[in-house]
Amino acid sequence: MASAGLYGAALNHAHPHEVAPASLVSESAKMVCPNSGLSGPGCHSKLILGGIALVGVGAAIGYLVCKKASCCSSRVNNKIKLGEPKVADVVDLEDIGEKKAFCRCWKSEKWPYCDGSHGKHNKETGDNVGPVVIKKKE
Q1: Domain contains 52
Q2: Which among 88, 84, 85, 121 is positioned nearest to 105, based on CA atoms?
Q3: Which among 35, 38, 105, 125 could bridge 118 via Cys, Cβ 3.0 to 4.6 Å?
């Protein structure tokens, strides 16, 4: 097995990993890049740069897909007065009485008052939102 080369050594041995590491390095230096006519370290540099470029493009695509997917999920209010540019409600102090709970989860059927919908929202999302409670001073 004088000059069997890397592939010949792998074919002649029962275990290809038995090829000495030094011979792997010398054999890889003799490899030729397909369709390029180049051999030696220049070829490997091009392969490494191509691999790095491929990983970079993959990372950029992953970043853009993730950014696009997360940009649209930031809306909190999906129910109350969606046609208005801003939701602002005015409640007279006389209407509050002794104590009133106001919704902060945007899920209440009795908007702007709390109906306890935040409990279901908290269970589904792991959030901890609750109402703001306004009461008269004692």
Answers
A1: yes
A2: 121
A3: 105
In a domain, 26, yes or no: no
User: What CATH number has the domain bearing residue 115?
Assistant: 3.40.5.90
Q: Is residue 115's pLDDT more than 60? A: yes
Q: Could you tell me the residue range of the domain that residue 59 belongs to?
A: 44-75
- The number of domains in the chain is 2
* Residue 113 domain-assigned (yes or no): yes
Whether residue 86 lies in the annotated active site: yes
With H, G, I as helix, E, B as strand and everything else as coil, classify residue 126: coil
> Distance between CA 110 and CA 84 in Å, rounded?
18
Mean pLDDT of all residues in 8-16: 48
Tokens of 63: 């970043």
Q: Using CA atoms, how far apart are residues 95 and 138, in angstroms rounded to an integer?
A: 17
Any domain includes 128:
yes
Two tokens, residue 121 = 């929202």
* pLDDT band per the 50, 70, 90 thresholds, residue 122: very high
**Alpha-helix runs per DSSP H in the chain:** 5-12, 21-30, 41-71, 93-96, 117-125
